[in-house]
Amino acid sequence: MEPRHLSSQDFRTFAEGVLPRERARTAVAHLLRGCGACRAAVAPLWSPAAPVEPDAYDAAFERVAATLGGRARPGEPAGVQGPDRVDDLLQRAWSLRHDDPAEMLRVARLAVLTASGLSPAIGRPQVADLQGRSWAGFGNACRIAGDLEQAQGAFDRAAGFLNRGTGDPLSRAQLYDFQASLESARGYYDLALAALDAVQALHHERGDRHLEGRALISKGLQTGYAGRPRDAFRLTQEGLALLDEERDPGLAVSAIHNQLWFLVESGHPGEARDLLTSHRERLATGGAQCLDLLWLEGRIKAGLRELDGALLDLEAAEQAFAAAGRRSQAAGVKLDLAALQIRLGEPVRALTLVRDAEETFARLGASRTTRMALAFLRRSLSEREVPARFVLSLADLVRRHQTAAVRG
């Protein structure tokens, strides 16, 4: 028989972790079967508006973990228990990072709950490793969801557990990798690079060329965010030389795409065109990728002074991004169009495009750096003649900050 809906008292006691064991299990089964009304009612109790002390999270996690007793999720294979279940939850959370950050956060929280209830009989260092990995995964989910403060707290907890663990280098490398992404989201690219130095060193010591190459590609990306595109291209090239593409074919494609932007930003449109020609077939694997390449081609043509072709490509890219609901990218293309309009002798049109982009980024809650750059650009265009290269430099700055903010 389908259990009844939870009462308001059940909601409160369940969120506090004090609902009696059998009623709690019934409530969990009811929620996991997909009751939308009860999920909506209980969700705010798991998302406190004010900051919560780490000890309070620990206590709540421990109470709920004790209540659930390591029970498998409905529909989950009976053998997926204990350590295997923690790893399963972390893998599922990671797979959701692009499509459903909210669900990623929920699944990562379940991984922490499960790890906190593991028996020390499997080995205290091994349990500490699993707790460290689960807190790292939860922190990364918080970072993707935009809660940077809670992400740092979770990473600190993860480091504490890993210090009591087996010394597993893969777990430590993953934590450093997540920390690098957090520093990047904060705009601290040098700190992100320092964390990635540690990742690279750990994989080099292990002799894993592929993961060392991945770390180098990540370093290239952070160097690009820091505004050093030529150095970023070199690091990415070094990383590509170490990759085993069969292990992660999508990584090589992403790295080449990054290189195209690095070449465009560093003023080498001819090299960018040659690279795009060599890899066009493998880069254009879907609708989203084709739109990104259209944007790139418009920038390449603009760099090569093919202004009419650049205008057609960029206008088409802006309209297509807008139609696809990718408002940030559409606004970014408008900044490139503004630079092009200045070259075409149309400063009034350029100012209109900049104002439109500024309004869009404001509605999207863009970073303070992005808002300040756009306000400065708008005032400059209103007051005096501005060279196209100046507009392009600010357009690249905005694009880098927006990309760094949303990258998973």
Q: Short description, anyone?
A:
The chain has helices spanning 8-16, 21-32, 36-42, 54-68, 82-95, 101-116, 124-145, 148-163, 169-186, 189-206, 209-225, 229-242, 249-265, 269-283, 287-303, 307-323, 327-343, 347-363, 368-383, 388-406. With 408 residues, the protein is mainly α.
Explain what the structure shows.
It contains 20 helices and no strands. It has helices at residues 8-16, 21-32, 36-42, 54-68, 82-95, 101-116, 124-145, 148-163, 169-186, 189-206, 209-225, 229-242, 249-265, 269-283, 287-303, 307-323, 327-343, 347-363, 368-383, 388-406. The model is unreliable at 46-80 (pLDDT under 50).
CA(first)-CA(last) distance? 41 Å
- Relative strand content: under 5%
Query: If you compute it from the alpha carbons, what radius of gyration comes out, rounded to the nearest whole angstrom?
Result: 24 Å
Low-confidence stretches: 46-80
The SSE order reads HHHHHHHHHHHHHHHHHHHH
The gross shape turns out to be globular
How many β-strands, per DSSP? 0
Structural classification: mainly alpha
SS summary, helix count: 20
Mean of residue pLDDT?
85
DSSP helix fraction: over 70%
Main attributes?
77% helix, single chain, mainly alpha, 408 residues, 20 helices, Serine Threonine Protein Phosphatase 5, Tetratricopeptide repeat, 4 domains, globular
Give the SSE map:
Elements: H1 8-16, H2 21-32, H3 36-42, H4 54-68, H5 82-95, H6 101-116, H7 124-145, H8 148-163, H9 169-186, H10 189-206, H11 209-225, H12 229-242, H13 249-265, H14 269-283, H15 287-303, H16 307-323, H17 327-343, H18 347-363, H19 368-383, H20 388-406
Helix pairs in contact: 4-6, 5-6, 5-7, 6-7, 7-8, 7-9, 8-9, 9-10, 10-11, 11-12, 11-13, 12-13, 13-14, 14-15, 15-16, 16-17, 17-18, 17-20, 18-19, 19-20
